[in-house]
Amino acid sequence: MSRPLLTVDNLTVDFKTDEGMITAVDGVSFELKEGEILGLVGESGSGKSVTAKSLMLLNAGNTTYGGDGKIVLRHEDRDIDVLSIENPRDMMTIRGGAISMIFQEPMASFAPAITIGGQMVEQLLLHSSMNKREARELSIDMLNRVGISDAKARFDQYSFELSGGMRQRAMIAMALSTQPKVLIADEPTTALDVTIQAQVLDLMKDLISEYGMAVLLITHDLGVIAQTADRVAVMYLGKIVETGSVRQIIKAPKHPYTKGLLKALPDLDDLGAALTPVAGDIPSPLERPAGCVFHTRCPEIIAGRCNMDLPETTDLGTGHSVSCFAATPLVEAST
Amino acid sequence: MTETPLISVRDLSVHFPIGGAGFGKKLFVRAVDNVSIDIAPGTFFGLVGESGSGKTTLGRALLKAVPLTSGHVQYRDNGVDLDLRALSKAELKEYRKRCQLIFQDPYAALSPRMTVRDIIAEPLEVMKITSSRQETDERVREIAAKCRINLEHLRRFPHAFSGGQRQRISIARALVCNPRFLVADECVAALDVSIQADILNLLNSLQKELGLTFLFISHDLSVVAHTCDHVAVMYLGQIVEIAPTKKLFANTRHPYTHSLLSAIPHLDPDAEKKAIKLEGEIPSPINPPPGCKFHTRCPFARDRCKVESPEWRQMDDEHFAACHFTDELNLSRA
């Protein structure tokens, strides 16, 4: 097996706020291999976006990264420890160069007063040795690639002149034009209609396999994950509770939270079925539960155990791992 | 339909004027164009479509919150008979008590400066339904309990609550004045799936308990499928298909409904690839295409679709679709 392109090891992210320290990400570890799409699922507030932003050190100024956490990116045959980069100039090779990001809200992520083309050319000038004319040609070419008709005219338009789907296509064209090693897609289709979502997902899948990059796909939509991702990590309150191949997670989930998420989804093939919500509300990050973070809502809670101890991540074989006492009784018996 | 509909809409249009095109020509956004629907009492009536299809405008028109350009909307309930285009001031007041709206975004819909109790009590005070503070409090507590809001939370402010809890507060506010008809506009779109199911179940039990009628607007077909009794599919201001939910999903008759259905990402990674993929985007409602409005994106469009606008056709009992070739297309989901 090839060495992973990106390794995140025991990443912990805290925010200092007026109300106290908030732990948004707590001991998260995962790997991303070349050409792989890793789906990161979870509710709002589970720390998906914060994890993604940490890869490019994009979190706000009140962020502290926990002591022994590491993010290692393999770039041109050397390992770069992202968290220890101090010089903004060194950060440039990573931000927008080795790693690109597609944001959720395409309207908010383009500068409103600069043309689409202007923004595309600017980043190419920063990250490559192209001159202005080459950058312009490549940008128009990329706009064509993502299925924007009349790309030459669009190049000189502003983001408000484009529709939502078009804007997200332009965003993808922009993110891919620097040929990044890793693409982070943070809810890339959440703001779009289903018909447009289907178009954009197809396009992303094509481009990803063509460029052979690794993708971290963040979404709360398990359907989108099922249709695009190779592997899935499920996050809850800053922790990854279950990881596995997309088939393992969707067809044989082990963690009660993953099971609950799947059951809560309306099933189009069985209209009569009752909807089963995951009981209770997600706790405030200021009052993180002791023990297993999910125990306050868990239907399979083991009293005296889940609310006291933190479950370890247990490998179930073939890349499927889960952090839950109830799901790993065998391991429990042997200890 | 044998039952008298609670709301019956005939040829309703809502057009918004926008800046002129010069030479004295006026331009209009045809947000709702010739829509006719019947909403039976005590049911969930679903309205689906992409953004820009006019769902929200239709919902607001039924609440008389936007001016109606033409057509008829009739509200009939236990001897109360109101024509929405010709309401007197007193009648409008009466109608306002009977109809309420649940908003999409529970973070924006609640004033951060009011306590939960004040938020829920406000409609009572504005419409002068209760006469004393004690009576108001009683009514607030009663409805809060029905919506599963912890009564101790009534003194708190909205910022202390999660999305699901806020949506329950928002529902309580809509229900406090005992309305008969509710428009739920994308009321679960901003919520996580684990909470979404909880709110849908709550709406369902409230509907049964209080005998409410809902217009349930959503872009999410799977949510509508699970909640509604009847579904209307909207495209560019017009309704293209309307049927009881089970029939609509088992036996789709309009290509647009079919493409909406096939665009939903399937939860099974090994599921067969979809049949139809729509190209392009929804055209502008300022200058809608001639003929069948869907022909610019329809994979089955023929020459006739480009010039002739399709008639409403009855498939069976309560199933209607507006498509020239629905009999030739085999769209049902196997």
- Structure summary, number of beta strands of chain B: 12
Sheet having the most strands of chain B: 8 strands, mixed
Can you write the helix and strand succession of chain B as a string?
Answer: EEEHEEHEHHHEHEHEEHHHEE
Helix content of chain B: 25-40%
CATH topology-level name of the largest domain in chain B: Rossmann fold
Low-confidence stretches of chain A: 331-335
CATH topology tier name of the largest domain in chain A:
Rossmann fold
Describe the model:
The complex is a heterodimer of chains A (335) and B (334). With 335 residues, chain A is of the alpha/beta class. Chain A has two domains: 6-240, Rossmann fold (3-Layer(aba) Sandwich); 263-334, no CATH class. Helix content of chain A is 33%, strand content 22%. Chain A contains twelve helices and 13 strands. The longest helix of chain A has 18 residues, at 194-211. Mean pLDDT of chain A is 87; it is low at 331-335. Chain B contains ten helices and twelve strands. Chain B has two domains: 7-235, P-loop containing nucleotide triphosphate hydrolases (Rossmann fold, 3-Layer(aba) Sandwich); 245-334, no CATH class. Chain B has helices spanning 55-62, 89-98, 116-126, 133-146, 163-175, 193-210, 221-227, 245-250, 255-263, 303-307; strands at residues 7-22, 25-39, 44-48, 70-77, 80-83, 99-102, 181-185, 213-218, 230-235, 238-244, 313-316, 319-321. By secondary structure, chain B is of the alpha/beta class. Classes of the chains: A alpha/beta (335), B alpha/beta (334). The interface between A and B is large, with 44 and 42 residues.
